[in-house]
Amino acid sequence: MEPTRENEYKKTDITSINKAIGEPIYDILDRGGKMWRPLLGMMFAEALGRNLENYEENKDIYYACGLTELVHNASLIIDDIEDNSTKRRGDLCLHKKVGIDVAINAGNYLMTAPITKINQYVGIENQLAMYEIYGQEMQNLHIGQGWDI
């Protein structure tokens, strides 16, 4: 049988991937947080005239607001490693629970995964702007973290 992408996926050890990426990500996300970023984004959208009751008409707003929380949690994972923190939201920091290598990988995944779905949630007319803004804000996040270090 000729190798295909589908055959390669079938050979993938999903359990290992989940252990290395999925479980650490859900661990940090399940701890909660104040959710100020998504809330503020939705408040701005409503203030600018968006009626958020209809999801289909506003999935770009819901997506962008959720994206902010994923990126924030990613930055917390990385920041905790850089600061050698021990506790986050009442539990051990992720790198103390799963190791530095797994925590960095989970943090990087959280930062990059959302951009793969922009085309699903954002109309074609706004996608390029969203990619540009996202890229610039990721650079700003790292510049700010470098300043903190």
Q: Report the CATH superfamily.
A: Farnesyl Diphosphate Synthase
Radius of gyration: 18 Å
Q: What's the N-to-C terminus distance?
A: 52 Å
**If helices are DSSP runs of H or I spanning 4 or more residues, what is the number of helices?**
8
CATH class: Mainly Alpha
CATH fold category name: Farnesyl Diphosphate Synthase
Give me the count of strands: 2
Count of the separate structural domains:
1
Order of helices and strands: HHHHEEHHHH
Mean pLDDT across every amino acid position: 90
- Give the name of the CATH architecture: Orthogonal Bundle
Helix content: over 70%
Shape: globular
Spatial sequence of strands, sheet with the most strands: 1-2
Major sheet: size, sense and barrel closure?
2 strands, antiparallel
Share of residues in strands: under 5%
Low-pLDDT windows of residues = none
Structural class determined from secondary elements: mainly alpha
